[in-house]
C-alpha cells in the first residue's frame, strides 16, 4: 500500500496540468478570421518567366503606390498594398521584391512612423492550404521552397506563431522556435514552444517542447512530441486528474484509453484509483448512423472505502446508462427509443453524483428507465406499442419492473356510417366504437432479492380489455351532449385467497396466499354528459388607465354515470371473509359481511365497485383583462392579461351511497400576471362537519360525520388542503438565454447523438439555471416558492420551501454565481453552491465551493477552452469525504 501511495503521488506531480475533466464555464468567443485573398481583381501587367523546369508561367503583380525596376529590368520593386500571383501562390504585402534571375520573391511589412507599429505584413496562400501571416518571407518560384519569419497560421483549430520555418520541395516544413497554441491572438497568452520540428501532411514531430505562459517559460517540458494532423478518429491515452482526498488519500482520476473504432462507433475506458484501496471504473461508448439512429452506453462501477484503516466502510456500487433515439424519418410508422438509468441505491451518495457534487443529483431518490417500441398497423387503424420499464426508490430500496408492457389501441370508428354518405348523419350513424388491449408483466420487490427465486416468484401477468361505445350530438345549438358506456374485462394469471383470524374484542387479521391460475372479471358502466359555455357580461372601464375591459367565461359540465354492484360474491370476483371458526366477519359500521377482491394487488385488479349512480359536475372559469399596450403608438393596440386561467371546481354526488353521498370538492387554477410572474394553486373543500364522539366508550375528538356544513349554519366548507407555488425571474434575458442554450444543445444531441458530456450538461441545465455561464448577461436573480397547508381532522400542518439562484458580473471578465434555499422548518439555509468564473480569453478558470453541509467541498480549475488541448488543465479539489473525518 505504501508503494502504491508513493507511485500515485509521483505520477500526480508529473501530470499536474494534464487531465480530461470539463470546466463549468464556456464563452461564445469566436476565432479570429484571417484575411481572404481577392483574386477577382488582377493587374494587367503580366511578364512571362521561364523557370528551371522549362514550364512557362505567368506572374501577375500590382501595387497601389509604385512599381519600379532595376537597371537591367531583372528585379521588380512593388510598394504599397503590393500583390503577386504566381501559379497557385498568392502573396499580399506592403513591400514585395521579385528577382527574376534567381526566381526569388521577398515580402515584408513596414513600421508606421506615427504609431510605431509594424503594419502591412505579408499574407500568403499556396494551393488549397489556408492563409498565413508572417513578418517577412522568401519564396523560390522555381523550387517552391520558402523561408518564413514570424509566421501566424491556423491549422485545424490550432495556431502557429513566431519563429522561423522552411518549406521544402516535398512540402515538408522545418520549424524552429515556433509557438503552438489554441489562443487566436497574434501574440498568444500561452502555448507550447517548439524548439525545432518537422511538419508533414499528416503529422508534426518535434524536439524539445516546453510550455510558455505570458512569455514566461515553465518547467513543464517534454524531450520530444508528436502531433497527428488528421480528421479521422484516432485512439490514444487519456491523461488522469491528480489530487488528494483526506479520507481516501492521493488519487489519479479518470485515467484511461480512447478507442476510435470507426466513424460510427467509439469507446472510452477510464479508471480512478486511490491510495486507500478505493477504485472506480467507467466504460462509455457512443454510436451513430446518420439519418438512422444514435445513442450512447455508460457502465460505472465503484468500490469505495471510507474510515480508519482496519475499520473501513466498504461499499460496492454500479450504474448502467443507455440512451438511444431513432430518426423520425428512418422508419415511418415505427419508433424505437431507450432511456435506461439503473444504479445501486447508494451510487449517487457514495460517488458524490459521479464526483460532480451536484446537490440535486445527490439527493435524487427515484430513478426511471424505459425501452419502448411502437408501430402503426393496418393503415393507421391500430397502434401497437410495447415497453420495458423500471422504477427505483433509493430510500426504500424497492424496484418496480414491467417486463414488458404492451398496448394495442384501435382508432375510434363509426360502424354504422358510410364513406359514401351524403347529407347529415342520422342518429345511429353517430355511434362510435373503440377498442384497447393492454398486457403487463410486473415485479415489485426489494432490489436485494430481484434476481433471486423469492423475487422472481412475485412476477404478475395479466391483460385488460376495454370497449368504449359513445355518441355525441348538439342540442339547441349551445348544449353539447354525449352518451355511451364502456365494457372492461381483465384477465389475470394469479389471484389471492385470504385467511382471517378473529379475536374476542371484534378485531381480526388476515393472511394472503397467492394462487396460480387463470382468473377473469368483467364490469361495465353507462354514462351521459352535457356541457356548454357561458360568457359573462363584458364590463368596460373608462377611468382605469390602460385597463379597458373585464370578461368572465364559465364552462359548466354535468354528467351522470351508473354501474351495477360487482362486489356481490355471486359474480365470482369477491369473496366473503370467513374466520378460523368458519364464521362470517361482519363490518360493524355497515352491518354487512366483510368482502375482499380475489384480484387485489394483481397486474390488473380491475374496477369493481358497489352499485353507483353518480352525478358529476365541473365548473371551469377564465377571467381576462383587456388592456391597452403601452408599446403601441397608434392607440389601437390591445393585449389580454389572463387574471384567472382554468380555475375549476369538481366533485360528484352518489345517489345510491348509504352515507356521505357528496364527495369533497377539489379546485385548481393558475394565474399569469406578467411574463415573469405566474402562480399555480389547488385545494380541497370538505362539505362535512367535525364532531366529538365516542367509540366503544372511548372519547374521540373531531370525527367526520354525515352532516353538511350548511346544516350547522356555516357559510363555507372546511378547507382540508391548499397549496400554491410561483417562481419569478428578475432578468428575462437570462431565462431566454438559458432556453436558447438548452434548445441548441438539444438540437445538437438530436442530430449527432448524445455524448455523456452532453447528457450531463442537459441534466445540469434543467436542475440549475447557472449551469451555463454567460458573461454577456450582467446579472440575474430568480427564486421559486411553494406553500402547502393540510388539515386532517382538525390537525393542521404547514410546509413551505424557498429556493433561489443568481449571478452577477464583478467585472466584464469575472462572474459570481450562487444557488441555495431556505428551510423554514429548521430555520436555516439549505446547502449552498457558490462559484466564481474568470474568462481568460483562451482559458477558463472556475472556483466551486460548497461551504457547509454533508457534501462540503471545493474545487479550482483552470482549463484551455479549445477541445484540441482539452487535456491541458490545472486542477485542485477537496472531496466531500473529508466532512466525516
UniProtKB/TrEMBL annotation:
Its taxonomic placement starts with: Bacteria, Pseudomonadati, Bacteroidota, Sphingobacteriia, Sphingobacteriales
What Gene3D superfamilies does its record include? Lipopolysaccharide (LPS) transport protein A like domain
Q: Which residues form the LPS-assembly protein LptD central domain?
A: 204-688
From what organism does this protein derive? Pedobacter lithocola
- Its protein name is LPS assembly protein LptD
Q: Provide an example Pfam family for this protein.
A: LptD_2
Q: Which InterPro entries match?
A: LptD, LptD_2
Amino acid at each position: 500500500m505504501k508503494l502504491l501511495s508513493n507511485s500515485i503521488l509521483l505520477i500526480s506531480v508529473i501530470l499536474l496540468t494534464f487531465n480530461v475533466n470539463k470546466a463549468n464555464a464556456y464563452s461564445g468567443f469566436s476565432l479570429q478570421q484571417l484575411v481572404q485573398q481577392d483574386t477577382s481583381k488582377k493587374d494587367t501587367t503580366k511578364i512571362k518567366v521561364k523557370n528551371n523546369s522549362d514550364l512557362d508561367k505567368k506572374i501577375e503583380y500590382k501595387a497601389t503606390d509604385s512599381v519600379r525596376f532595376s537597371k537591367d529590368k531583372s528585379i521588380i520593386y512593388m510598394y504599397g498594398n503590393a500583390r503577386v500571383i504566381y501559379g497557385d501562390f498568392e502573396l499580399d504585402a506592403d513591400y514585395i521584391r521579385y528577382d527574376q534571375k534567381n526566381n526569388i520573391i521577398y515580402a515584408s511589412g513596414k513600421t508606421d512612423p506615427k504609431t510605431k507599429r509594424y503594419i502591412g505584413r505579408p499574407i500568403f496562400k499556396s494551393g488549397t492550404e489556408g492563409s498565413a501571416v508572417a513578418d517577412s518571407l522568401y519564396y523560390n518560384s522555381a523550387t517552391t521552397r520558402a523561408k518564413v519569419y514570424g509566421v501566424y497560421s491556423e491549422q485545424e483549430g490550432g495556431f502557429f506563431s513566431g519563429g522561423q520555418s522552411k518549406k521544402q520541395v516535398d512540402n515538408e516544413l522545418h520549424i524552429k522556435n515556433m509557438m503552438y497554441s489554441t489562443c487566436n491572438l497574434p501574440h498568444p497568452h500561452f502555448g507550447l514552444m517548439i524548439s525545432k520540428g518537422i511538419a508533414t501532411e499528416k503529422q508534426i514531430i518535434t524536439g524539445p517542447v516546453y510550455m510558455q505562459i505570458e512569455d514566461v517559460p515553465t518547467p513543464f517540458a517534454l524531450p520530444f512530441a508528436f502531433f497527428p494532423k488528421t480528421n479521422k478518429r484516432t485512439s490514444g491515452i487519456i491523461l488522469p486528474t491528480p489530487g488528494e482526498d483526506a479520507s481516501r488519500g492521493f488519487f489519479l482520476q479518470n485515467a484511461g484509453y480512447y478507442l476510435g473504432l470507426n466513424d460510427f462507433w467509439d469507446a472510452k475506458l477510464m479508471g480512478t484509483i486511490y491510495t486507500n484501496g478505493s477504485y472506480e471504473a467507467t466504460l462509455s461508448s457512443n454510436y451513430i448512423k446518420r439519418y438512422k439512429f444514435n445513442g450512447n452506453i455508460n457502465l460505472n462501477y465503484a468500490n469505495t472505502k471510507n474510515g480508519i484503516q482496519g475499520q473501513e466502510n466498504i461499499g460496492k456500487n454500479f450504474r448502467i446508462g443507455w440512451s438511444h433515439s431513432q430518426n423520425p424519418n428512418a422508419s415511418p410508422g415505427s419508433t424505437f427509443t431507450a432511456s435506461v438509468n439503473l444504479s445501486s441505491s447508494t451510487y449517487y451518495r457514495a460517488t458524490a453524483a459521479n464526483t460532480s457534487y451536484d446537490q440535486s443529483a445527490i439527493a435524487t431518490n427515484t430513478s426511471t428507465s424505459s425501452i419502448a417500441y411502437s408501430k402503426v398497423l393496418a393503415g393507421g387503424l391500430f397502434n401497437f406499442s410495447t415497453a420495458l420499464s423500471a422504477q427505483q426508490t433509493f430510500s426504500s430500496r424497492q424496484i418496480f419492473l414491467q417486463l414488458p408492457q404492451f398496448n394495442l389501441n384501435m382508432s375510434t370508428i363509426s360502424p354504422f356510417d358510410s364513406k359514401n354518405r351524403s347529407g347529415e348523419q342520422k342518429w345511429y350513424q353517430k355511434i362510435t366504437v373503440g377498442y384497447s388491449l393492454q398486457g403487463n408483466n410486473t415485479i415489485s420487490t426489494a432490489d436485494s432479492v430481484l434476481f433471486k427465486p423469492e423475487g422472481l416468484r412475485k412476477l404478475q401477468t395479466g391483460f385488460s380489455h376495454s370497449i368504449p361505445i359513445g355518441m355525441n350530438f348538439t342540442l339547441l345549438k349551445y348544449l353539447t351532449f354525449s352518451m355511451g358506456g364502456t365494457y372492461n374485462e381483465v384477465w389475470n394469471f394469479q389471484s389471492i385467497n385470504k385467511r382471517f383470524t378473529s379475536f374476542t374484542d371484534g378485531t381480526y387479521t388476515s393472511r394472503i396466499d397467492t394462487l396460480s391460475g387463470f382468473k377473469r372479471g368483467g364490469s361495465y358502466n353507462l354514462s351521459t354528459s352535457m356541457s356548454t359555455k357561458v360568457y359573462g357580461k363584458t364590463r368596460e372601464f373608462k377611468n382605469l388607465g390602460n385597463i379597458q375591459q373585464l370578461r368572465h367565461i364559465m364552462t359548466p359540465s354535468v354528467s351522470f354515470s351508473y354501474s351495477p354492484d360487482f362486489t356481490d360474491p355471486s359474480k365470482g370476483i369477491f369473496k366473503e371473509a370467513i374466520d378460523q371458526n368458519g364464521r362470517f366477519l361482519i363490518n360493524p359500521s355497515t352491518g354487512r359481511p366483510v368482502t375482499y377482491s380475489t384480484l387485489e394487488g394483481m397486474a390488473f385488479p380491475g374496477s369493481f365497485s358497489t352499485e353507483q349512480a353518480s352525478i358529476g359536475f365541473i365548473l371551469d372559469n377564465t377571467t381576462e383583462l383587456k388592456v391597452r399596450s403601452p408599446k403601441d403608438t397608434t392607440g389601437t393596440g390591445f393585449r389580454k392579461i389572463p387574471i384567472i386561467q382554468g380555475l375549476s371546481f369538481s366533485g360528484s354526488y352518489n345517489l345510491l351511497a348509504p352515507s356521505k353521498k357528496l364527495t369533497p370538492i377539489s379546485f385548481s387554477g393558475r394565474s399569469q400576471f406578467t411574463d415573469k410572474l405566474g402562480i399555480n394553486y389547488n385545494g380541497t373543500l370538505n362539505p362535512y362537519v367535525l364532531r366529538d364522539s365516542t367509540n366503544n366508550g372511548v372519547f374521540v375528538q373531531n370525527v367526520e360525520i354525515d352532516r353538511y356544513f350548511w346544516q350547522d349554519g356555516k357559510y363555507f366548507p372546511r378547507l382540508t388542503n391548499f397549496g400554491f407555488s410561483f417562481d419569478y425571474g428578475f432578468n428575462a434575458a437570462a431565462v431566454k438565454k438559458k432556453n436558447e442554450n438548452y434548445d441548441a444543445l438539444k438540437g445538437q444531441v438530436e442530430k449527432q447523438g448524445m455524448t455523456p458530456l452532453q447528457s450531463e450538461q442537459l441534466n445540469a441545465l434543467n436542475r440549475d439555471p447557472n449551469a451555463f455561464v454567460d458573461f454577456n448577461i450582467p446579472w440575474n436573480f430568480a427564486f421559486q416558492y411553494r406553500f402547502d397547508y393540510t388539515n386532517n381532522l382538525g390537525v393542521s400542518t404547514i410546509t413551505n420551501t424557498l429556493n433561489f439562484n443568481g449571478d452577477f458580473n464583478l467585472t466584464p471578465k469575472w462572474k459570481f454565481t450562487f444557488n441555495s434555499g431556505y428551510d423554514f422548518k429548521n430555520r436555516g439555509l439549505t446547502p449552498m453552491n457558490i462559484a466564481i468564473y474568470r474568462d481568460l480569453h483562451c482559458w477558463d478558470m472556475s472556483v466551486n465551493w460548497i461551504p457547509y453541509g454533508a457534501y462540503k467541498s471545493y474545487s479550482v480549475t483552470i482549463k484551455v477552452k479549445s477541445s484540441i488541448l482539452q487535456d491541458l488543465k490545472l486542477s485542485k479539489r477537496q472531496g466531500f469525504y473529508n466532512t466525516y473525518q
